[in-house]
Amino acid sequence: MSSKEILIVDNNVAQADQLMRVLEKGEYEVVTAVDGPDGLEAAKTIKPGVVVSAVSLPRLDGGQLCQAIKGDPELRNTPVVLMVRPHSHDDILAALEAGADDVLIGAPSEELLLACIKNLGARNGSVSAPNPLEIDVGGRKHQLRVEREQLARVLLSVLDSQAHDGGGNGGSAATGPEQELARLKEALLANLSYELLSPLATIKGYITSLRKNDDTPAHESIMNRLSENIDHMGDMIENLVYAADLQAGRIVLERQEVDIKGTIAESVSDEEARAENKGISIFYKLPSAPLMLGVDTRRLRRALRHLIDNSIKYSPEAGEVMVQAGKTQSDVVIKVSDQGPGFDADLQSDLFDNPDNPPGQSDPPTGLGVGLYIVKKIVQAHGGRIQVDSKPGSGCTIALYLPLNPSKR
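The structure corresponding to this sequence follows.
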């Protein structure tokens, strides 16, 4: 058991990604799983220092996963942290009844999450079960095996959650039906991401197995096409969930001062195989001097990949896509140009709000239509702006203007 290896079990892709980035900053090694059974299997395989799990999981919820871990002779001393929804007292009690070593409420602050993991990791497998504590809440008795220190940490998590949402329910602008609609939307997206991503992962596993048993060229070609389409479906599902998180303001930028030429080169490299499959050449042209900028490199790379992918999608066969970058007095400017059909200027305002039907496209490729919306939100989060230059029959150039000093915008 390594106290530096953490297992995250969460079917919310964006939330798991956020937790992973915080923990990796704390120099932890992170493994992820998307549901209870996968999480239990991963725990048995890697024997992590701490398991961090959402309570709401398909097939086997977080409480059941915690009980399964505590009931396994080889895993019973593994600390388990359960993450519950804000303002859900029943979930908190259920998590403690399940034997959770700690409970985090809502989206915990970076400081609280790292402190929680450090505290539990320091136990190094010496978790002991305290005497049961019986409490009565609303006429229902609860048997909790908790320590005073643990209850104090749960209280701290409650306060931390209230600080994040403005002091509880009163801090939210949405009330009544609007709040319920938002909750239903989040639940639908979480369910959608799991119900589609989990079968895709299973299918991909079968494809890997089939490849080992038949390596003929025709068989390999079929397997490659299946694998590519599964990857494409997975990307669309994750983009949908990510766009919803952006819209809800749940994505927090982690800026660092970097030479973004490296990020641009990596983004181009990410899309080269896709361009090659369509017979399209992709180039980039960067200045010799560094392009230093305070950005979230992972978010920026995601935005650039969407832009480049969009250019590849609408470029004719044997066309070219060019990525360029430079600097003005106030901005770093990144341009992505293609040789696609282009469109009228008066239609450009809708491009980033309804990207699945780009203006002027009579037969657009299929997709969920959120890629350019994600680009827009990421650029806006950096304090930047987008400029589009296109004419019918003359291709399209999309320029991202990222401010050198965002505080002045």
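Confidence is low (pLDDT under 50) at residues 148-153, 155-160, 162-175, 355-368.
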